[in-house]
Specification:
Layout (H helix, E strand, L loop, with lengths): L3 E2 L1 H6 L9 E4 L2 E4 L11 H6 L6 H6 L4 H8 L2 E5 L41
Parallel strand pairs: 1-4
Antiparallel strand pairs: 2-3, 3-4
The structure holds protoporphyrin IX containing FE.
Protein name: Cytochrome b5 heme-binding domain-containing protein
InterPro entries: Cyt_B5-like_heme/steroid-bd, Cyt_B5-like_heme/steroid_sf, Cyt_B5_heme-BS, Cytochrome_b5
GO molecular function: heme binding; metal ion binding
């Protein structure tokens, strides 16, 4: 089974103060400490996303399939899913405060019709 890391654990490995360099890509955690010096785009670009989710930065750089393949060898585990995900609306976007579901209207009380219940 894959090792699970908390986002906070990954965030500590940001390459600063002698820390290793970890990054997140598509929910997986990578230790790229030994790779940054060999990165064709330079170490700085990776250090900018060290300890963070680098998915967008990696994809936006337009890496070749070869680069994606190289990345795999540095995988050390997976990132833990957030304990309390934000509430989601039907369209998949995070619900804004005040936009939460309204309670359904309550059925008419039987007493209002004098206690008489009609079955038809
Ligand atoms: C550890 C993860 C990474 C690996 C294995 C990796 C690998 C590579 C490789 C093999 C290339 C050469 C071109 C190619 O084959 O696509 C490259 C170029 C490049 N990478 Fe990465 N990369 C990583 C992370 C990143 C990150 C996080 C960024 C952030 C922006 C980045 C930005 C770039 C850029 C801008 C280039 C183009 C450099 C140039 O053509 O001068 N890379 N990378």
């Amino acid at each position: 089974m894959s090792q699970i890391y908390q986002k906070s654990e990954v965030a500590e490995r940001n390459g600063k103060n002698g820390q290793p360099v970890w990054m997140i890509y598509k929910g997986n955690v990578y230790d790229v400490t030994n790779f940054i010096k060999d990165h064709p785009g330079g170490p700085e670009l990776i250090l900018e996303v060290a300890g963070k989710d680098a998915t967008k930065a990696f994809n936006n750089a337009g890496h070749s399939p070869d680069a994606v393949q190289q990345l795999k060898q540095y995988k050390i585990g997976e990132v833990a899913i957030d304990a309390q995900p934000k509430p989601q609306t039907a369209n998949g976007k995070s619900a804004e405060p005040g936009q939460t579901k309204q309670p359904l209207p309550q059925p008419q009380q039987a007493e209002k019709s004098g206690g008489f219940l009609c079955c038809c």
